[in-house]
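HUMAN: Please help interpret these tokens:
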Amino acid sequence: MTLFDQVNEDIKAAMKARDKVRLETLRNIKKVFLEAKTAPGANDELSDEAALKIIQKLAKQGKETAQTYIANSRQDLADDELAQVAVLEEYLPKPLTEAEIEASLRDIIAQTGATGMKDMGRVMGQATKQMAGKAEGGTISAIVKRLLA
């Protein structure tokens, strides 16, 4: 079952359960999926990889929006946004811990033969491909800088 099909099934389940937050979030995911499927050059297909990227983007936007609400003393709106982010995160792979990221980065550094900061771009290129969806770019970058310094 593709991620698109899973979201459709979960929409039905959320409707039956009368789970308003989950239903709203899943409908938003489906809307963005449909927009991506019908975009020029998409051939009416949406791979699971592309779907995961979309969900990651939506989760990141939701977290940023929640932070903005908190900064403006609107905890009620932030809570709503974070509830939607929680639903989005159910569809994402389990994030790696810092120790797991560091272990993977040590392997990548050994494979690429990186010796200093001048090799950071090469390491980051491989790391972001390998850890796509499992670690944030900022975290990867900080650990790479620390390891290469």
User: Anything to note?
Assistant: The CA atoms of residues 24 and 84 lie 8 Å apart.
